[in-house]
Amino acid sequence: MAEQTQGIRSKWLLLTAVVLGVLVVVIYNAHIRAIRQEFAGNKISLVKVTRDFKRGEKITVRYVEREQIPRSSAKAFGNVLRWKDLDILRENGGRVVNQPINKGQLLLWDHLLDFRRTRPSSTLREGMVAIPIEFDADQSLGDILSVGDTVNLKGMFAIGGKSARMYRIISGLRVLNVGGRGAAEQTPGRSARAGSMRNYRKITVEVDEDVSLQLSNIFSHMLGKVQLELRRRDAKLPADAGQINPALTTLATQARTKKTRRARK
Fold this sequence. Notes:
Oligomer: single chain
Mean pLDDT: 78
Shape: flat
Distance between the termini: 105 Å
Largest sheet: 5 strands, antiparallel
Low-confidence stretches: 184-197, 261-265
Structural class: alpha+beta
Strand content: 15-25%
Number of strands: 9
Number of helices: 3
Order of helices and strands: HEEEEEEEEHEH
């Protein structure tokens, strides 16, 4: 009798172990599936060009591939063409591009618009303005910087009577123009004598309208000229992208005029 009871008990323990094992597997698979779904939801599929294109050439699906990037970073690249809209490159044998496109660059709707109807200001997003940023030529980033990249601005400040030090002013600004050239005119690889992009003193960036006024005030307090930092094109933008560094907010509300500079001296 004792042996029979022990046998029944062993069977129940074995059955319980099997059920628990199956339950663990089910829970694990459900957890992995949830993680994958969450990860997929944070990605967006865009269209990347697989070779260089000159203005006037026709681009088709043969010369593009899928590129997945974090959804939060998509806005930094402008009016991007999504993979789900790829049929536009199948219609009528493809679409003519209105400006040079480099291999590896994300395809924008602006690349495909009729250049006779396209205006550079149409690339500005709602609530944004374009402002020039000047710096010393020896501080330029050379050919590595191109339209559509994002940059940080930094400068030297003496705040609250303390010694001057370098601050990052603002991060993640989209570049609209480099050295006086927009995307349609920028031609990498030219020599410096031929007007290369290696030697320039000004870029144009896109900022929020209110932030533009704050930057003007901050620049009036800066010692010397602004310096640039180039961000990796596919890098995730920081949470405070496009906003003034909190350490400089006291300078953002009032400009320092020549008169106030003399008074401080």
